[in-house]
Amino acid sequence: MEQPAPIPAPAGGPVGGTRPRDRLTIPVLAFGGILMAVMQTVVVPLLPDLPRLTGASAGAVSWTVTATLLSGAVLTPVLGRAGDMYGKRRVLTAALALMTAGSVLCALSSDIRVLITARALQGAAAAVVPLSISILRDELPPERRGSAVALMSSTVGIGAALGLPLAALVVQYADWHTMFWLTSALGALGVTAVWWAVRESPVREPGRFDVLGALGLAAGLVCLLLGVSQGGQWGWGTPRVVGLFLGAAAVLGLWCRQQLRAARPLVDLRLVSRPRVGLSHVAALLTGFAFYANSLVTAQLVQAPKATGYGLGLSIVATGLCLLPGGITMLLFSPLSARISATRGPRITLALGAAVIGCGYAVRIADSRDLGMIILGATVVATGTTLAYSALPTLILRAVPAGQTASANGVNVLMRTIGQATSSAAVAAVLVHHSSPVDGVQAATLHGYLLAFAMAGAVALAACAAALSIPGDRAPGGIRRARGRTPGARDEALEGA
């Protein structure tokens, strides 16, 4: 395999660059990450009303979420590999442009088929974070890299926390198309800002793009995630769902064989088989599961009618405001995550974050009736998520060659996505199984919610165990060599290990 181009000296990067616009690289990339998360969230307040607004069935409307999930899962590793080969800024700009085009289509139409297609286009934005992290590695000097990567990782939670109340306010007080015109304008601003402020990284992994590998991965992931996301609605034992899972197993098995034989594979499975990389992906899957249950369950719990005996009957706007402190916490704690990773290593940061998530769910189990305790528990989970999500890309950056950072982080984000999809299905199954009629309507019981919290907490502890199983991210003797250096120099020494 051809060797990737070396990482250039960061003298011309955003910190020490000669152009004034270079100083905007980190804020611009962070804006793109927040915008991506907002785009994924804004449709949630619309879901109850979309059948009436579009004349479509509830099942058809659910595809406005499923389509984004599927396309994001498929395109993230594909666009990550394309960024390593053809230029990260170029592919990042294309991903943001597809997201913006999808938003414009949503603003122009009320046809459910157009909306589903548009939401699939928006799924391309899932590649924004791994591409941005790879750009930061290439362009930033070591002393700024850790905090910037931590901030970039946190934008997923920050954007989700901001997007829900923003979308709810727009939907409540304006025509629902207005929301998509607003996100279209923000998307166009993001595309322009990336084109103007972000340098194209010269670090490339040359070769021919693995089209067969991309098609195989797409087919396998569509079968897998479609079965996971629709299993509760279609029935887990139905021939359709069982067939999807069997098809996913067969296609992904053949895909793995093809990737191992390919001269330049889409995903370097030999790299993934290394414990430092493979266990990081396992931890990402488990953390994604544990994190996503927090938003899902909290939103349903506080909106449950008071007749249930535990519900608070809050509006969707109030629900979004309940999740907002978690987003603010993610922004505030991302520098702390970078500091812990610089001094103790990202493996410890990841384990600590997973443990904090588990503690947050313990708070949720202790009291899920008082609004203050609900917000506190959700915020603790968000804090742990910040630590964990900020550490994951740093682990990947230290474990893979410079020319494969975007594709490797793309796979890591894919594992988070699979974890989130599995969490959604598992939580739905628990809540449906533990439900009872309230005023003639089936509603989940408090016991069902507590079981969902316990399940997510157990998965968080499994993520902690996986993190602690990752081989040390310092070379033998690295701790001794790194002592006495500045955090930036220490980080640079550890990356070279």
Cα-atom Rg, whole angstroms? 22 Å
Strand order of the largest sheet: 1-2
Treating each run of at least 4 consecutive H or I residues as one helix, how many helices?
A: 20
Give helix % range: over 70%
Number of strands: 2
Shape: globular
Order of helices and strands: HHHHHHHHHHHHHHHHHEEHHH
Largest sheet: number of strands, sense, barrel closure = 2 strands, antiparallel
Poorly predicted segments: 1-16, 475-497
Assign the structural class, choosing from mainly alpha, mainly beta, alpha/beta, alpha+beta, or little secondary structure. mainly alpha
Relative strand content = under 5%
The end-to-end distance, rounded to whole angstroms, is 21 Å
Arithmetic mean of pLDDT: 85
